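Good morning C.,

I know you're traveling, so I'll keep this short. The sequence:
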Amino acid sequence: MSADHYSGKRKRSKQKPENSSSPIRSYARWSSLVFQMGAIVLAGYFGGMQLDKFLERDDSIITLAGVVTGVIVAMILAVRIILDNKNQP
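The tokens, ready to paste straight into the viewer:
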């Protein structure tokens, strides 16, 4: 037997390098961003709604503030992810 067999080294299989710009990867990346943004906005909505109930407010202004905050945070997340993807080869 060869020395490679005893030393624990394995020969690397000749696989093609994964294409990071494949359509499936791109679709998965952007669809996950959409779900993250939706989850952030929903968290702001439900958080604001619960605060309105807790504080016994009838005008739902805290719910509106939660949604606006959620949209702002989601947009910041989206811009960061887009800029990070732009910088990758």
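Safe travels,
E.
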